[in-house]
Specification:
Layout lengths: L1 E5 L6 H15 L3 E6 L13 E5 L13 H16 L3 E5 L4 H15 L7 E5 L2 H8 L4 H10 L2 E4 L2 H11 L6 E2 L15 H5 L8 E6 L8 H14 L2 E6 L5 H11 L5 E5 L4 H5 L4 E4 L8 H8 L4 E4 L14 E4 L4 H12 L2 H18 L2 H19 L1
Parallel strand pairs: 1-2, 1-4, 2-3, 4-5, 5-6, 6-7, 8-9, 8-11, 9-10, 11-12, 12-13
Helix pairs in contact: 2-3, 8-9, 8-12, 11-13
InterPro entries: Glyco_trans_1 (IPR001296), Glyco_trans_4-like_N (IPR028098), Glycosyltransferase_grp1 (IPR050194), Thiol_BshA (IPR023881)
GO molecular function: glycosyltransferase activity
GO biological process, one term: bacillithiol biosynthetic process
Amino acid sequence: MKIGITCYPTYGGSGVVATELGMELAERGHEVHFITYKQPIRLNAQHPNIHFHEVDVSNYPLFEYPPYDLALATRMAEVAELHQLDLLHVHYAIPHSVSAMLARQMLAAATPARHLPFVTTLHGTDITVVGADRSYLPITRYSIEQSDGVTAISSYLRDVTIREFEINYPIAVVPNFVNCDLYLRYADAKKLRKEYASDDERVVVHLSNFRPVKRIPDVIEIFDRVQKKLPARLLMIGDGPDRSQAEWLTRRKGIQDRVHFLGKQNEINMKLGMADLMLMPSELESFGLAALEAMACEVPSVATNVGGVPEVIDHGVTGFLANVGDVETMARYAIGLLSDETKLREMGKAARRAAQSRFCASKIIPQYEEFYRTVLERVS
């Protein structure tokens, strides 16, 4: 198949999943065309089946905000026509599904027999944030219902979408995934972690885009309690608006020498593959991709019991769940686990088994391929 993929190319779950999906599809012989305003952050593999098409947004004095959605629709139509794409797969409903709908209409107007189907994957804040801003509800609902197929990354997100938008439209649940051959516990993990920690120190990790919903200060608060009980280091992977607040908090607590802000990283698997524990105290997660990537590396998580996280983490088996803001309980779980080597490694291996059995790319990518075939058969 020839597939066009559009996502936000920044450091966030939807862009990561869309990029990884495109690379996995390319490995399976499909021709993949990324159509975005810049190259996705994790698109670092050179592959003959992967193509990138930049969306150029013109700055014009009449527009206070450049019309990205219109430029995207135009570029989608151009790429689809030039490369004879079979379908578009857009990640995030607004504005990507609206742009795909316009591209489909543009092609149909030029060639009435041409129907360019598009699939929309819902990732979370495209629904939860829009759900809080009712002004976007009609266009979001319309673009979803106009899609030729819709998927959600968790049962939680599917149910929220149907409830908040009163949609009478089938939404398939296709969960996020991880490449289990790439994300794993490295045999030389001790050697890799020497750059950050000594042999007697635990390595705790957090991975996100540092937005308020990730509750970055809670990560620091939890770790502060942990490091008071046992030797530990914290790796903060990612960047975003709350980084400066977190850095200030580490200085205020006098733990700045134990917390390493690594910024955006490409080889996430290398950092996760040497860690002991993931902290994910988010206000809301529609899935929890960071926890899944850690699980594949035999790293259990202490996370919040929100959204789709319980669909990923089995409390007491592959990690621990607590209420939002309950840093005391999360710290207690972390300290207990990090203090017990046997329990830590048993839980890590259980996490790896869960990732392999339910969320490996080898199991999820065929679900997307089958979904594409179903859509193409339905519209042909």
